[in-house]
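User: Could you check the structure of this?
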Amino acid sequence: MRFILNILWAIFGGGVILALEYALAGLVCCITIVGIPFGMQCFKLAGLALFPFGKDYDDGGKRGTGNVLLNVLWFVFAGVWICITHLAAAVPLAVTIIGIPFALQHVKLALLAIFPFGVRIRELP
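Assistant: Sure, the predicted structure tokens are below.
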């Protein structure tokens, strides 16, 4: 079932477009040495945006000072806008019964996009 939902997500839920946008943003961020940590978070979000069903995330107890500082910078310059975009995509999807699973994935991505540093993506059993 996860496979079918991931394929439908990639085509109809915007997964391919989201993954390409995150990957492009990651490449742009990696142009400078200072931007590499932000680029790595974009690549992490791209992987989750492409096939989100069957994956979840947790902080793994790694919310150190460095992660907090990077999360604050991310939140100010990118996190808020990415979160708003995902929530704006989730609202029309949530109106239909068929779109509810896709809306939930957009909400999951929105929550992760706010503070991605120190978060680990894992496969669900």
